[in-house]
Amino acid sequence: MDQHDAILSRLLTLHPKKIDLSLGRTERLLEALGRPDLRLPPTIHVAGTNGKGSTIAFLRAMLEAAGKKVHVYTSPHLIRFNERIRLGAEGGGKLVDDERLAAVLERCEDANGGQPITFFEVTTAAAFSLFADNPADWLLLETGLGGRYDSTNVIKTPKATIVTSVSLDHMEFLGDTVEKIAFEKAGIFKRGAPAIIGFQSEAAERVLEREARRAGAPLVVAGQDFHVREENGRLVFEDERGLLDLPLPRLPGRHQHQNAANAIAALRAVAPEIPASAIEAGLARAEWPARLQRLLRGQIVDFAPAGAEVWLDGGHNEDGGRVLAEAMAEFHDRSPRPLALICGAQTTKDVRALLKHFAGLAREVVAVPVEGEHKSWPPEEVAALAKAEGIPSTAAANSVEEALKILSARPFDQPPRVLIAGSLYLAAAVLSANGSQIE
């Protein structure tokens, strides 16, 4: 076990709950560390149910294309913890190295003095310490859960805030309606900082606009203040400053057009000096693992049916299922193939709500468990739910590898398109088993 892994294991034991939304413990630790949160670069703070990471990926790519040094904080990680903290550097940011990570975690552990604090809170303080000690032009900051009481919300004066698509997820912590969840996400809005409100349902948008006004945050609302559309194989973005004729994003799926638009709107609001050429380059360069990521080689691909396309996505809620199904339908229109879905989910997720979007689209569902600390839906129950949603051919398997072997034995009329989805933890396990690297 590496030194930082040992420290991370100890930090997991400092609080009886994995999630306990509060700002007090984070502020206490930051005070003991000399308030690194007051020495951060200009910050864009991002909340939302879906699309946070992709929006940040676009922002990072665009800013780096303009020659900016960009710190990034995201969660959860997929393969190793270092993925959560990216330090800005000339020519592009780099994941924090093991030595610096171990040193800052040890400093935070000592400053905390064994007091109760959640893992996310103490590691957020560690990230802030690193960001404060390493100069950069921008910090892109993703909330962990919610917004109002998320430990990242100790930031008092962001340059801008963004709330991406809001839908039902983490209801045990944030509330059981879209309105309640939107209220929690809106907690990141701050006086004077433009509030970019991404494409929303009417219910969510109504709450977000109300809370932005209460906070004194200037509104920049998708569908009102900025628009995006695909036209002749190009991405057209339009706001009061004019029209941008851009290439389609590298990240596949029409939902990424909206995430890209969120990023562009934020930059137009707070960094208007970023040239259109950097925005174009960012669209072409942005990467975000396990979000409609095509696996082209590796052990998992080797298990797949000969000639199959293998796609991986961490989508795990109803809205995630909707955009995934829309993307698969779009792929089918361009290049028809039978679709097979390999699905695993945690019991805290409404897997049936995700599966319903694949009725009439997926030829088959093979359900698998999600390994690790999170309680998984039994594969047999997921298969039964898929059948209840009208997907006639379903099966259960003990692993993704076994699921791919099952699909390899099916008499598809042509090599299938295989989508592995339902959980970020499942996606992480697939990337690890496949030998994939995240840099």
From TrEMBL:
Enzyme class: ligase
Single annotated GO MF: metal ion binding
Keyword terms, alphabetized: ATP-binding, Folate biosynthesis, Ligase, Magnesium, Metal-binding, Nucleotide-binding
GO biological process: folic acid biosynthetic process; tetrahydrofolate biosynthetic process
GO CC entries: cytoplasm
Protein's name in the database: Dihydrofolate synthase/folylpolyglutamate synthase
Function according to Swiss-Prot or TrEMBL: Functions in two distinct reactions of the de novo folate biosynthetic pathway. Catalyzes the addition of a glutamate residue to dihydropteroate (7,8-dihydropteroate or H2Pte) to form dihydrofolate (7,8-dihydrofolate monoglutamate or H2Pte-Glu). Also catalyzes successive additions of L-glutamate to tetrahydrofolate or 10-formyltetrahydrofolate or 5,10-methylenetetrahydrofolate, leading to folylpolyglutamate derivatives.
Cofactors required: Mg(2+)
Domain (Mur ligase central) ranges: 46-266
Family: Belongs to the folylpolyglutamate synthase family.
Reaction(s) this enzyme catalyzes, per UniProt: 10-formyltetrahydrofolyl-(gamma-L-Glu)(n) + L-glutamate + ATP = 10-formyltetrahydrofolyl-(gamma-L-Glu)(n+1) + ADP + phosphate + H(+); (6S)-5,6,7,8-tetrahydrofolyl-(gamma-L-Glu)(n) + L-glutamate + ATP = (6S)-5,6,7,8-tetrahydrofolyl-(gamma-L-Glu)(n+1) + ADP + phosphate + H(+); (6R)-5,10-methylenetetrahydrofolyl-(gamma-L-Glu)(n) + L-glutamate + ATP = (6R)-5,10-methylenetetrahydrofolyl-(gamma-L-Glu)(n+1) + ADP + phosphate + H(+); 7,8-dihydropteroate + L-glutamate + ATP = 7,8-dihydrofolate + ADP + phosphate + H(+)
EC identifiers of the protein: 6.3.2.12, 6.3.2.17
Pathway involvement of the protein, from the record: Cofactor biosynthesis; tetrahydrofolate biosynthesis; 7,8-dihydrofolate from 2-amino-4-hydroxy-6-hydroxymethyl-7,8-dihydropteridine diphosphate and 4-aminobenzoate: step 2/2; Cofactor biosynthesis; tetrahydrofolylpolyglutamate biosynthesis
